[in-house]
Amino acid sequence: MAESAAEVAPILWKDVPAETREDLTGKLRGLWGAPTDEAAFNACAVDKQQTLLLMVSRLREKRLWQVVKRIDNVYGEGGVGLEFLAWPFIHSTLAARRDFTRFFANHKECAGGFYEKGRADAVLHFLYVDGKPQKWYVHFDLYSPVHSPVSIYNHVRYEHFGKLTPDWRVIQKHPKHNPLHQ
């Protein structure tokens, strides 16, 4: 049985590992009107706090955390991801990476996107919408539409037709993505 958000205690900024606090410093200020990174983190619901921890951990592991300039929104229920303002080099960085592809990565309402390659599940999916400034999003897809025939089938069956959007609990079950298992 999955834990409900009510069964998981909120985390205080002071209890977040120092390296993670350092990674988040300067990126949360202003989120939902919070004057500081600490105030923004402490005001987040448990699902959003868990999403932040998962995203920092995974993007740091992929050496992509530096492309995030400021976090504008966080979601952990009905999907696990971020809306963020990116540094200008994000597109060229992702386009140059062998572990990301544009194949199947776009959505109708977006200008483009990138999928993480080399993983069957809990894959990163970046999307962007043109504008001034350009809006970027990154979320976890439970199954990869570019990894293997089995993962493509699972992605289409569960996420495309089944409208499954994993929450933070589902992504956290993957040991590689759980910052508590590192």
Condensed summary:
The chain has 182 residues and is an alpha+beta fold. It is 30% helix and 21% strand. Strands 1-2-6-5-4-3 form a six-stranded antiparallel beta sheet.
How would you describe this structure to a colleague?
This protein is α+β, with helices and mostly antiparallel strands and 182 residues long. It has one domain (5-181). It contains six helices and six strands; from the N terminus they run αααββαββββαα. It has helices at residues 18-24, 37-43, 46-61, 90-96, 149-161, 168-172, and strands spanning 68-75, 81-86, 100-101, 112-116, 121-129, 135-143. It has a six-stranded antiparallel beta sheet with strand order 1-2-6-5-4-3. The longest helix is centred in the N-terminal third of the chain and has 16 residues, at 46-61. It is globular and about 45 Å long. It starts with 17 loop residues before the first helix and ends in a 10-residue tail after the last helix.
Instruction: Estimate what percentage of residues fall within beta strands.
Output: 15-25%
Shape assignment: globular
SSE order in H/E notation?
HHHEEHEEEEHH
Rg from Cα: 16 Å
In DSSP terms (H or I, runs of 4 or more residues), the helix count works out at 6
Proportion in helices: 25-40%
Find the structural class using helix and strand composition: alpha+beta
Strand arrangement in the largest pleated sheet: 1-2-6-5-4-3
Uncertain spans = 1-5, 177-182
Q: What would the average pLDDT be, to the nearest integer?
A: 84
**Largest sheet geometry:** 6 strands, antiparallel
What is the distance, rounded to the nearest whole angstrom, between the alpha carbons of the first and last residues? Answer: 23 Å
The tally of strands reads: 6
Tell me the count of domains. 1
